[in-house]
Amino acid sequence: MSRRPALFDPWRIVQIAAWLILLALLIWPLSAILSASFIDNDTGRLGLGNYREVIETRAFRRAFVNTLIAGFGGMTGALIIGVTLAWITARHVILGSRTIQLLAILALVSPPFIGAYAWIVLFGANGVVRNGLASIGIDVPPIYGVWGVILVFAMKFFPHVYLMTSTALQSVNPSLEEAAENLGMPPGQRFFKVTLPLITPAIAASALLTFVLSIADFGTPRLIGRDFNVLATEAFTLFGSELGGNPGMASALSMVLIGISLVLVMAQRWAIRRDVFGGNMIRRPAMTILRGPRAVFMHLGAYAIVLFGTIPALTAVIFSFRKTHGPVFQPGIGFESYQKVFAQVSAPIVNTLIFSAICVTLIVAVGTLIGYLLARRPSAGTALLDGALMVPYIVPGIVLGIAYITRFNTPPVAMTGTAAIIILVIFIRRLPYAARSVASALKQVSPRVEEAAISLGCPPMTAFFKTTVPLIAPGILSGALMSLVTAMNELSSSLVLYVGGTATMPVRIYLAVIDGDYGTASALATILLALTALAVLIAFKLAEGGQSGQAQGVKLAT
Amino acid sequence: MPEVLKIAGVAKAFGGVKVLRGIDLTIEPGEFFTLLGPSGCGKTTLLRIIAGFLTADEGAVTLGSERLDTKPAHQRDIGMVFQDYAVFPHLTVADNIAFGLRTRGLPKAEIEARVAEGLKMVRLDGLGGRYPSEMSGGQQQRVGIARAMVIRPKLLLLDEPLSNLDAKLRIELRDDIRALQKRLGVAAIYVTHDQEEALAISDRICVMHGGVAEQTGTPEEIYRTPLRRFPAGFVGTTNFFASAVAGGRAALGPAVLTLHGAADGPVEFALRPQHVALAPAGAAVPAGSIALAGTVTRYTYLGTHALCVLATEAGAITVEVKDPGAMAITEGAALTALLPVARLMAFAPDGARVDVAP
Predict the structure, then answer these.
(1) Does B180 touch chain A if contact means CB atoms closer than 8 Å?
(2) Is residue B88 less than 8 Å (CB to CB) from chain A?
(3) What is the ipTM of this complex?
(4) CA 20 to 30 Å from B29, out of A93, A154, A501, B99?
(5) pTM for the full model?
(6) Dist. CA A405–CA A502, nearest whole Å
(7) pLDDT in tens, B259-269
């Protein structure tokens, strides 16, 4: 008998296409900064000079240390706040828990920069709240410096931890906790000895995410850090300054930044190397009904956390309706900021909407197909693909932006200054999230469902679109809206890539803040926030509506 | 038109592990054929190769004169019933059943007629508008069966369709499947690890083990005359006694038996519990029986019969007591097991059956 090749599988083409996309939009641009980091700015020669300078220059050494402080500080703060909130809301009956969830998501997606600015307005040297507190005798130090940066990171990134951890908490098999109790363990201990270890994979994943986000953020250290410089700010300055720009050094610093992320990724993998907890879930964990002082305490805690997290957004909204004269705020209410936005800076609004719409379409189409590959066609090839998809997680937006400008500035592919370059960079940055979420949704649906369709005469691709897609459609759609939200709010990569005509709302907000035109910044931020909130609300509704369908899928899979 | 399904030399390996080592089978038209074996024996792999969800490394699958394994799965016209039902949760029962018919582009009236027929076939009349989530597991599997049947497949494949159901339902649905298959006259290949189910439902059984077809035959052939060590142990309960062949002869307790054509070396005797008789210690030994004296180590009363385990010089032996209560048996009592030589089987170390002569 002769050996035969496998029958034709259309998913093979998808896999090849996925690799081509990753190579063209990720690996190739990143290779540009890798090679640039070895080129000396003055002599143009190849060497390790840039890296030597990173080690030898005091400012860079400090930036390196500061990056680690910001990363671990932001991560720790976000973990403490996020896990606490998750534990309160996932295991206790809290009035308005959906509002809390919504507020947390709003905190997550509030436009960047305006956040840092809002904290200054409230808690800066002349901050409204700080002055108010001082007048009743409470002296709070101004928010500037390292602690301010960490606080802002914690408040900005805790919703990631909260969302990931509460999902995990809801899927801990209650029998395990009951077994612990039955074996004589008091509930307080049980949380630390049984529940917490079971959700470590989720916590570790969110820890990594918040760390990477913290070290990638350069707006916050810039506005609040004062002289607290980190690698991201240094790289941006080196790359962006008109005179004395040093792309080689900027690239070397970018590589160091990627290196730190890589080490963290490996540490996270190592930490959860044994933690593969699966099991049969028959019931959901019970929700405790709170009474007495405990109820008051828990409610206060939960609402305090999310309200504190949404302060920047609220500040932006309030300030957008303040009377202004030029860039200066006047007492009273006024709509000058909005008039100015619509008269002078409406292009960024249109840009943002068009760019993110294109982006999301691409992300959904490509992400769904790749997600399917990851979940349903496990092989050495797809495992490698999954690994390659990790790259955008750990490459800060600013670094990818620099990579794109370096690679696509000159032929063969010259597209700096185009809308395409901004769309593509956001696409590749957000693609992994979409692919991963589709993959995890697919794991809830039995692969036999699709095979049944094939055995009934459907070609493989048709079977996929007729059975699996409808089952995961609510997941895909709500994922798409979340991608839309992140695409609309993307700043760091766009900031290096925009030209006058392709500025987006976040870029314009940043420029307004830098110019001291806070009225315009607040009005733009409010519009962005409103669009974001709308998308989030629709995503929520869809997820809710799809619950019944999904529940059927889940039921079937068990 | 009824066609014969031929599986010739089918082999499959996953990452170097040989799951199927060259399977040859012929399934007759209208036959109910079962692949029986423990998990990991390759039965599901073989079924999925026939269905087209896996590609064989070697070998061929043909239906009539037509090569099946070179066709994509969706063009094979094979109905499949899945262990986890795989009913489409987003479609109603009627839409589930109509799925394959719509794919085939049948006229609307015909689809409606066949769906109604399908619902009736599995006794779900009037439930066409329901969603699968509103149904029990047994009902969902009925939908799965109807869905596979209404396309009038050339072949029906069933992958452990009853293993997720409770015992009573399993027997009920098992009988329904068999009746339906006979009524429609479609050949069925049924995969199970449950030997009782296999005996009850099949026209023929293929016992699989380690990627090899150990024995193929009717349920009675498999049970009464196992040709190899594995089916003898896997189907039904069997006592095994280790012994050794020297010069064509091997000892079992006090007796020495002749084994035709057996090479020197280890050998195993085997005997079903229901063929062993119990006698009081020291009772006369009837002709053609071997007496093994022992003590009762366990006595399990099961209503219609009882199982009694005796420790003897040849090892532990389980005896089926047909009329429990007729003889008072207590643990620790001394009794004799009578082994009829005519019923004795013997197996060489490679698993092959060896003839026993008195």
Answers:
(1) no
(2) yes
(3) 0.76
(4) B99
(5) 0.71
(6) 14
(7) 988 888 999 99
